[in-house]
Amino acid sequence: MTGSAKAIRGGILDIRILYRCAIRPRAIRAYLENDVPKGLAIGTGKGLMSSWLNTDLLPTNRDVVYLDATGRFPFRNDQFD
């Protein structure tokens, strides 16, 4: 039974990550179109930075964008101040 519960939790996490990956381009584009100085918070957890693009491997709310910091970032090098 324990193995099944872990598998279900893992599947739910996979679905959340897939969803976050699907909405990520729209969230990034919306942030970059704002007329504010651009900052990138990597691994933000629950400590959101005001006016920054908050990212995390396991986003805790809708204001945090999924980003695996071990891979290639979906930004140009000059997009942040």
Task: Write a concise synopsis of the structure shown.
The protein has 81 residues and is α/β, with parallel strands linked by helices.
Topology readout:
Elements: H1 2-33, E1 40-42, E2 53-56, E3 65-66
Parallel strand pairs: 1-2, 2-3
Notes on the structure:
Helices cover about 40% and strands about 10% of the residues. The protein is an alpha/beta fold. The chain has one domain (about 1-65). A three-stranded parallel β-sheet has the order 1-2-3. The longest helix is centred in the first third of the chain and has 32 residues, at about 1-35. It is elongated. The model has no long low-confidence stretch (mean pLDDT about 85).
Keyword list:
3-stranded parallel β-sheet; 11% strand; single chain; elongated; 81 residues
Please give the domain count: 1
Strand order of the largest sheet: 1-2-3
Pattern of helices and strands = HEEE
Biggest β-sheet description: 3 strands, parallel
General shape: elongated
| Secondary structure tally, helices | 1
Q: Distance N terminus to C terminus?
A: 50 Å
Number of DSSP-assigned strands: 3
Report the portion of residues in β strands: 5-15%
In helices, the fraction of residues equals 25-40%
User: Structural class per helix/strand content?
Assistant: alpha/beta
Oligomer: single chain
Chain-averaged pLDDT: 86
Low-pLDDT runs of 5+ residues are none
Radius of gyration: 15 Å
